[in-house]
């Protein structure tokens, strides 16, 4: 059985750290907590779980802090988490089993990351990230912001899921770090360009975001998956800027890289819905449902666009087309994903009343 060091960097995480550490305390043989300047009870909470609570002077560089935390590890493998991550019971058990059975020739293990949820608890976005690495490989983090762990060797894609349970609103910290790097004349990497664009996008600076998304898209080392993802981001920017023609152009551009993804099908469906062209809208929403999951395990998956959203919109389309049975069917499916959604509940109730005389006959 392998041994595991859990290495974390934290700052002012008193609201989330205990929950995170409780979820992995029976998995980690060693816990290393690197604190970058907490002013709350974070260090005291960490001290309940480990004697290895170490200060690190913050230098606006997440990779530097992560690499420092990894350097403190002494076990066979290193696991990293953020303070607002958690392993739910099923996945804690999966990781325990993996710990017992892992072939020591494996250099790195990826896990799914459920990183966003809707108000009904459904996963809306998941990605895959390297989470567990062999310590002696001395893998290094890169990137001052949205840091990435660069690995080579034998990689195992596990079925373990890490769940993100964010409790704090996002700040402008990352945006300020990027802007400071620009003032210093820092040359952005491919990854920096994408993530700076996403920070601008998040702060509703849509025109500037598009500028950096476009710089990212023309680089030679950008993968098709990243281009698909950025097409979606740019389409959203153009939508918010009111440039619907550009939104359509970049939506269709995504088809250059793979079969139509559900998120783009839903965007096209909504375009026709706005035009009160329900047959055309229904075509795209049906395609969103029928499109198979990406073959690439590392693809970013947008769950609403392949689950409740197209079903709810098909319910609307078929209602407007007088196809009440089909409308009822799709609203009912949508309700299985969002059982507390009052709008969908009302849709189902209305359709049941409309269909009651038909069923009575």
CATH architecture assignment name of the largest domain: Alpha-Beta Complex
Radius of gyration: 23 Å
Percent in strands: 15-25%
For the record, give the distance between the C-alpha atoms at the N and C termini, rounded to a whole number.
Answer: 66 Å
Low confidence ranges: none
Order of helical and strand elements: EHEHEHEEHEEEEEHHHHHHHEHHH
CATH topology of the largest domain: Spore Coat Polysaccharide Biosynthesis Protein SpsA, Chain A
Can you tell me about this structure?
- Residues 5-124 form the Glycosyltransferase 2-like domain.
- InterPro entries: Glyco_trans_2-like, Nucleotide-diphossugar_trans, TPR-like_helical_dom_sf.
- This is Glycosyltransferase family 2 protein.
- It comes from Paenibacillus gyeongsangnamensis.
- The protein has 361 residues and is of the alpha/beta class.
- It has three domains: 4-164, Spore Coat Polysaccharide Biosynthesis Protein SpsA, Chain A; 173-258, Tetratricopeptide repeat domain (Serine Threonine Protein Phosphatase 5, Tetratricopeptide repeat), CATH 1.25.40; 276-361, Alpha Horseshoe (Serine Threonine Protein Phosphatase 5, Tetratricopeptide repeat), CATH 1.25.40.10.
- Helices cover 48% and strands 17% of the residues.
- It contains 14 helices and eleven strands.
- It has helices at residues 17-24, 42-47, 62-71, 89-101, 173-183, 190-202, 206-217, 224-241, 244-253, 262-274, 278-290, 308-320, 324-337, 342-360; strands at residues 4-10, 30-35, 53-55, 77-80, 85-86, 108-117, 123-134, 140-142, 148-150, 155-164, 301-302.
- Strands 1, 2, 3, 4, 5, 6, 7, 10 and 11 form a nine-stranded mixed sheet that branches. It has a two-stranded antiparallel sheet with strand order 8-9.
- α10 packs parallel to α12, α11 runs antiparallel to α12 (308-320) and α12 (308-320) packs antiparallel against α13.
- The longest helix has 19 residues, at 342-360.
- The termini are far apart.
- The mean pLDDT is 95.
């Amino acid at each position: 059985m392998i041994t595991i060091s859990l290495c974390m960097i934290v700052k002012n995480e008193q609201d989330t750290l205990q929950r995170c550490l409780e979820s992995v305390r029976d998995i980690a043989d060693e816990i290393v907590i690197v604190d970058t300047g907490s002013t709350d009870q974070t260090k005291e909470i960490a001290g309940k779980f480990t004697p290895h609570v170490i200060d690190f002077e913050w230098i606006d560089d997440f990779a530097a802090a992560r690499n420092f935390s990894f350097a403190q590890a002494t076990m066979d493998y290193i696991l990293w988490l953020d303070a607002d991550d958690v392993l739910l019971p099923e996945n804690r058990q999966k990781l325990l089993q993996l710990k017992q059975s892992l072939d020591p020739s494996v250099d790195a293990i990826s896990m799914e990351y459920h990183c966003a949820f809707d108000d009904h608890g459904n996963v809306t976005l998941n990605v895959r990230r390297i989470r567990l690495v062999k310590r002696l490989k001395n893998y290094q983090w890169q990137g001052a912001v949205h840091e990435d762990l660069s690995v080579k060797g034998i990689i195992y894609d596990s079925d373990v899921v890490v769940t993100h349970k964010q409790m704090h609103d996002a700040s402008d910290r990352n945006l300020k770090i990027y802007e400071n790097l620009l003032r210093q004349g820092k040359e952005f990497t491919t990854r920096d360009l994408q993530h700076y664009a996403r920070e601008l996008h998040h702060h509703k600076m849509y025109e500037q975001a598009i500028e950096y998304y476009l710089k990212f898209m023309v680089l030679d080392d950008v993968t098709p998956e990243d281009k698909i993802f950025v097409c979606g981001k740019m389409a959203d920017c153009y939508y918010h800027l009111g440039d619907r023609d550009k939104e359509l152009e970049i939506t269709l551009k995504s088809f250059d890289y793979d079969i139509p993804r559900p998120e783009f099908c839903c965007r096209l469906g909504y375009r026709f819905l706005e035009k009160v062209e329900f047959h055309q809208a229904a075509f795209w929403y049906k395609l969103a449902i029928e499109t198979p999951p990406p073959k690439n395990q590392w693809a970013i998956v947008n769950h609403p666009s392949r689950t409740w959203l197209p079903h709810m919109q098909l319910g609307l389309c078929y209602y407007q087309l007088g196809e009440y049975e089909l409308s009822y069917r799709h609203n009912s499916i949508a309700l299985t994903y969002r059982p507390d959604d009052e709008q969908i509940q009302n849709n189902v109730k209305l359709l049941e009343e409309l269909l009651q005389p038909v069923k009575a006959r």
